[in-house]
Amino acid sequence: MPKLSNGKTKLEAIFEKTYWLTKAGENPVEWMNRYKNRTPLIHLKDMTTDGEQFFTELGTCGVDIEAVLRKGEENGFNTKKKKSEW
């Protein structure tokens, strides 16, 4: 199986996207539990709370961003990192 630049296989690294998981009816925190050692990055994006469920700025509350950040800290993520530090 082909390897990524970090030496892991594609199935060993999952980039969780909070918006798309929620849109699909999944719970991002459950995915973080399931793939704890395979999720090096969480892409935070919120969703509108209307019937359209379009993506929007963080804090709209369509996605439980606070729960995702708490779980990220429990899993050892640096949730305080600035984009320029990635």
3D structure, described in words:
With 86 residues, the protein is of the alpha+beta class. The protein has one domain (13-78). Helix content is 27%, strand content 12%. The protein is built from three helices and four strands. It has helices spanning 18-23, 28-34, 65-74, and strands spanning 15-17, 41-43, 46-47, 55-56. The protein has a two-stranded parallel sheet. Strands 3-4 form a two-stranded antiparallel sheet. The two termini are 27 Å apart. 10% of the residues are buried.
Structure described in brief:
The protein is an alpha+beta fold and 86 residues long. 27% of the residues lie in helices and 12% in strands.
What characteristics describe this protein?
4 strands; globular; two-stranded antiparallel sheet; alpha+beta; 86 residues
Distance from first to last alpha carbon = 27 Å
Average pLDDT taken over every residue? 80
Class per helix and strand makeup: alpha+beta
* Main sheet: strands, sense, barrel: 2 strands, parallel
Q: Major sheet: order of its strands? A: 1-2
Percent strand equals 5-15%
Overall outline: globular
Helix content: 25-40%
Can you count the helices? 3
Radius of gyration (Å): 14 Å
Order of helices and strands: EHHEEEH
The total domain count is 1
Number of strands: 4
Spans of 5+ residues with little confidence (pLDDT < 50)? none
